[in-house]
Amino acid sequence: MTTDQPRLWSGSVARPAREFATTPLAPSHGAVPAGLRGTLYRNGPARLERGGMHVGHWFDGDGAVLRARFRDGAAEATYRYVQSDGFRHETEQGKLLYGNYGMTAPGPLWNHWRRPLKNAANTSVIALTDRLLTLWEGGGPHALDLETLDTLGLADLAGPAGRLESGEPFSAHPKQDPETGDIYNFGVAIPGPKARLMLYRSGRDGRLLAKGHLDLDAVPLIHDWVMAGPYLVFLVPPVRISVLPVLLGLKSYSGAMRWCPELSTQILIFDRATLELIARGETEPFYQWHFGNGACTDGGLIVLDHARYPDFSTNQHLREVANGRTTTPAEAALWRMTLDPQTARVLEHAQVSPRSVEFTMVPPGHMGRPWQRTYMAAHRTGTDTTAERYDTLACYDHTADHFIEADLGDGRYPSEPVVVPDAEDPERLWLLSVVYDGNADAGEVWIFDAAALADGPVCVLALPEVVPLSFHGCWRPAP
Question: Among 45, 261, 305, 401, which one is least packed by beta carbons within 10 Å?
Fold first, then answer.
């Protein structure tokens, strides 16, 4: 049952985050595993206010990236804001100037026409061979130096297939083939009253190797997708955006979104090699932000996991996060879907775990391939899922039909887990998460043996500053 009392998690968004230079991290518990060698990067909204004005939605906050490097049983971390043009301009003026996902440009209406939406660069990251890309699905990626996190500018990913043109966004959920290193991604371009789904294939260095597209019959909200063997699969939920009020500056994108339960969830299946549509189908209305993984079965069917919401109330819930208090119920559970790839017909769609979960994922080596365990952030049993953020880490073992969770204790809130292989024993997996300790108003990095979450962390590292609750991250193995 909800109350009017602020929850401890609200401290993580109560003030703009403070950057810190490269700092050695001392364990407050345990020790860094010797085989954990590489760099964790995480991205999320770190500044939700400027000049006494608050942003309209959690998704509007300025992006900041955490870099935590592990080697030789030691760790260090760096935290810096992405220096986008909009961020620098607002810093100079000392106030919010731009519209974004959940807000229109402050001031008179003509400000909307004078200024484009600010690229907040706040949602995800992917490490290329020579740079880090920070991703925001409404525009192009910013490139950062892998070590210093210096902002190098917008990246157009120019390659044999051309470049990202103006109006061709590069979304926050790329997928990388664990064998070839090729990176697949999408973007929803809005050239008019109907959208165009852009598809991209890049090399390890990010250079575009192929581009494709599909014209859509409206402007939907598509946040994530899934790679399943030779297929790219999109579930398009029945959320529609009325573009004209946005173009006129009368509404934000979030304000112009409508939940349309009379419509179906659309299923789009593309051939990964050609980026061409091979099947289209429909199923009942629901919403999902994130998928866990996808794969092909021995019988040639597609199976995929996702965190399923019954409707789009999650958007209002996430808007409230920016104010430090959530009152709108929005609870997702882990579901599994089986599809015929030739017809996009749903053969089975069922809930596999009743727990409240989000940020479902698998180790990078399992991307697009058969997997046994889906990892996630979750609510503990008995937690008020409306008022509280996720307060534990968990995995679901599909083979054993078993839900396993860690115990972080009261008042501790993890980010999306990132699961990575040990450098010396690739069969051993480590789970990493950036945790906000609301009891101490402190930031930490927790490391678990991914096969023994219930045993507690093998190491807890204190960060020099609070890193606010973030969205997505990636792992770059040591060269």
Answer: 401
